Amino acid sequence: QTPLAVLRNKLDILLQSEDLTKNQYTTAEEMNNALTRISRISKNLLLLAKIENNQFDSSEMIDFNALLHQSMDALEEHFAQKNISVNVDISPDINLKGNGILAEIMINNLLINAIRHTSPNGSIWVTLTTSAFEVSNSGEKALDTDLLFKRFSRISRDNNGSGLGLAIIKEISRFHNWTVYYRFEKGLHAFSVHI
Known about the structure:
It is a single chain. Helices cover 46% and strands 21% of the residues. The chain is built from six helices and seven strands. The strands form two sheets. Strands 2-4-5-7-6 form a five-stranded mixed beta sheet.
């Protein structure tokens, strides 16, 4: 991360220079965006390595309801921005043993993935029961299940993601001895984590 931080700092200084032409500024801005993406990929790969090496505590009690409501509140602006209707069916008092930080990352990744891949004016369903957490979103055709949870695989032409979100979800599920499934039915992509 240190070389990336140095590069970002130097680019920030460059972008503040008044001597830049419009073309130079555009090029520096593109470099800054690429650097941001590289930094995100680096952090995600580091997270995957830590999960695979069991470097997280898994003994705390997770208030899954609270984490889910917190994540949904934080993403409210994103739902509104695309005019996505959100349908919620959340059972109360779902407490699980595991790691709260990883559970929150998994919840956020599933919700962000659904937002990213739902067309404007589409719908998202969020369900939590004693046995599963599921996020569904409207879609047109099934995804390639052979590529779905592989690192850096692209399930759409959207280039905003790092290509690691679903791989992280799968590793977090494995870490907790949960299982993640995907299905497409009745025009809905559904990602289900059996907890």
